[in-house]
Target: Putative dehydrogenase
Amino acid sequence: MSGTVTERPARLRAGVVGFGWAGQQHMDAYALHPDVELVAIAGLEDGPRATLGERYGLPEAGLFRGYQEMIDAARLDVISIATPTALHAPVALAALAAGVHVLSEKPLAESVDRASAMVGAAKAADRVLDVSFNHRRRGDVKMLKQVIDDGLLGEIYYAKAGWLRRSGIPGLGTWFTQKSLAGGGPMMDIGVHMLDMALHLMGEPTAEAVSAATYAEFGPRGRGGSSGAKVGARADGTGAYEVEDLSTAFVRLSGGATLLLEASWASYIERDQLYVVLYGSEGGAVLGSPEAWNLPQLSVLTELKGFPAELTPVLPADGNHAEAVDDFVAKVRSSSWADQHGEHLLTRSTIVEAAYRSAEQHREVVIDQP
Ligand SMILES: NC(=O)c1ccc[n+]([C@@H]2O[C@H](COP(=O)([O-])OP(=O)(O)OC[C@H]3O[C@@H](n4cnc5c(N)ncnc54)[C@H](O)[C@@H]3O)[C@@H](O)[C@H]2O)c1
Model:
């Protein structure tokens, strides 16, 4: 009998560092992916290590405390990093040095220096470096990107993007509110999702200057915590609170476009909001629902035969972390990684860092162009 036998490539061996909500999203996505085998997890907590090991059917040899032990022992092809932000760079550098492709949680790192070191290491090792920006996989964002790519908005010259919470500081006194571990407050945590969305939708412009302000009106007084406050919050509601709880930034982008960005973990507003508003030469768009921050909704403002018109496109399903992991796996499976070293991710780090510097110095910060 003649015929061609196509060999299926071996499944990628995946490891995940971090047992929190974010780490579990990556574990779920790898466990369900047909081209991937989740072989190892690492994290400091004994209880979750055992429970998650059981949930994903991992043997004792696949359960680790520290990330370095896992990288040394588990023969990984890919790793997801879902640790406190200040550990993203050390874990990524260790993994890349061992030839492992890296998918980091957002933000890439807490500083431009560390983010650049990660990109440099990905280049040197020629491995994929990516960030799982799950919110850009919302149905409304994906549809808006198609609308823009089809030219319906023309040239986008101004954008507003924000994520504001009524009471959503993620754990007073945990690593999220400590500068050395988190790097910053809501701008670093959720503002970076909105920045990613805006830059993605606007065609990846670079940044020229940032003028920003930050405020800490809730956290230092033990107010504004999320209902799911984590272990580490103190009984009296106070704790180490070293970051802002609201930031606002005005960003000048290449080509003359501008972006107004706001991010807040706590503020006296009616309800949580997530929005993007785009102003284009041929049309506009409003993304996000006034009813609920996590409800995808999109209006495209345009003209039909000279009449003002509003389109509400049918939205595809949300992709969430599963789609971010799918995209990462597809990049790893592609034949060339030369464009996958995460260079474009640096614009996000540059803008966030410039925003904090601007707020500290009370002036616009001009970004050096390469
Ligand atoms: N994309 C999203 O929607 C989203 C949502 C929440 C958090 N995040 C990001 O995910 C990351 C983790 O957030 P989280 O809320 O899951 O945090 P978390 O505090 O719940 O979990 C952090 C985990 O890191 C582990 N860890 C810390 N130091 C370690 C070390 N040296 N070696 C091994 N493991 C170590 C801890 O043991 C813990 O399991 C952060 O970067 C955060 O910004 C993203």
Observations:
- The radius of gyration is 21 Å.
- The first helix runs from residue 21 to 32.
- The pocket of nicotinamide-adenine-dinucleotide is lined by residues 17-23, 42-45, 66-67, 82-85, 87, 105-106, 134, 189 (CB under 6 Å).
- The first strand starts at residue 12 and ends at 17.
